[in-house]
Amino acid sequence: MKRSIILMGILLLASMPASSQQAAKAKALLDEVYNKVNSYDNIFVDFKFELNNTEANVRQETRGDVTLEGDRYVLNYLGAKQMFDGKKVYTVVPENEEVTIEDKSEDSGTVSPSRMLTFYREGHNYAWDILQNVQGRKIQYVKLTPIDSDSEVKSILLGVDVETKHIYKLIETGINGTKTTITVNSFKTNQQLSKTLFTFDEKKYQEEGYYIIRN
Question: What is the average per-residue pLDDT within 166-183?
Fold first, then answer.
């Protein structure tokens, strides 16, 4: 019995350095992704969004795209357009002919478009996960677990293209059982952008009869 306890202790101690090395390996890969993202002047991402909750019988699938330049972004998603010009967030909903103007939210529980490629830099523990072959591309997954025990997110799997160091897929599992998957269909960098892309033209929407809401 005593010998078994000693053996278990040795095995446990032996596994600790390996686990630490795997975490360091995962962080190193994400650091490469972060440095690669920050090396671009701008980024355009076309993506597929899936939301599933089996218990609630909810399934949603759609596509969208986002253009990022520093903190500024333009997001087209679910028939609406959201833009951040560095100071204000503008949400345009053509179906309701409404525009909402508000200050940037500092809610740390929400991954904003401007942080969707860099949010993993803080607040998570890292673990090396599976390697997948997707149509000839090697996708290495890293598992992120929130450090905050009150987080509504149970875990996140971040799939990274080993060759390009670009994020290919994000799979977020909530504590309520909801699974959100974002798959990158197209990733373009250093595009020729219009000088007015991140400029909100309030007069244009007023002339088109949109109702302007300021929060």
Answer: 93
CB 27 within 8 A of CB 145: no
Note the pTM of the prediction, 2 decimals.
Answer: 0.84
Into which CATH architecture does domain 2-214 fall? Clam (2.50)
CA dist., res. 71 & res. 138, Å (int): 29
Mean pLDDT of 159-173: 95
pLDDT tens digits, 73-107: 999 999 999 999 999 999 999 999 999 999 986 55
- Here the tokens at position 182 are 């974002």
Domain boundaries, the chain: 2-214
| pLDDT tens for each residue of 108-147 | 444 567 778 888 988 999 999 999 999 999 999 999 999 9
C-alpha closest to that of 159 among 147, 144, 174, 173: 144
DSSP characters for the chain?
Answer: -HHHHHHHHHHHHHHHHHHHHHHHHHHHHHHHHHHHHHTSS-EEEEEEEEEEETTTTEEEEEEEEEEEETTEEEEEETTEEEEE-SSEEEEEETTTTEEEEEEPP--TTS--GGGTTTGGGSSEEEEEEEEEEETTEEEEEEEEEES-TT-SEEEEEEEEETTT--EEEEEEEETTS-EEEEEEEEEEES----TTTT---HHHHHHTTPEEEE-
